[in-house]
Amino acid sequence: EMQVDELQRLLAGMEKEHRSLLVKMKAGEAELERLRSVEGDKLAQQDRSAELEKEVAMLREKIHHLDDMLKSQQRKVRQMIEQLQNSKTVIQAKDAVIQELKERVAYLEAENLEMHDRIEHLIEKQVSRGGHSSRTRSKSEYVSRSLPPAEQSFFSRSKRLTGPKPLPLIRVVET
After folding, report:
1. pLDDT reported for residue 43
2. Buried b or exposed e, range 135-174, using 16+ CB within 10 angstroms
3. Where is this region: Disordered (predicted)?
4. What pTM value is reported for the model?
């Protein structure tokens, strides 16, 4: 944004100089026309006329150069503004995705807690019902016998996840 402001400041300066050069050129052309209209072959007027013609040509060249520079700077400013807008759009899209993922995580965490509560509740039911049995059963036995197949597989997966984790595979790449 600072670069855009700097370029806009430079553009304003070039436009101001462009206007002043146009005013000078018109004044020179007016004086040249006045000198041409005056009759007489005075040497001073001819010299001044030639000098003014050179100055007008030089000013036209400067104006042409400034016009080219102005157009180039304006293109750069437009491109920078467009890049900023594109970046903002990308950031907003990524923020939306992040927010959606946060909501998903919160939902899944709530679901996970609910499943754990169900499992604990079912285990407590089994323990209270099976407490009169002659042999003592582990919690996993109660769960695996009392739960529907989908929940049994969930319990067995969660039990597997609590064990030691395997070490990550490290690959060495030569460069």
Report:
1. 66
2. eeeebeebbbebbeeebeebbeeeeeeeeeeeeeeeeeee
3. 126-148
4. 0.42
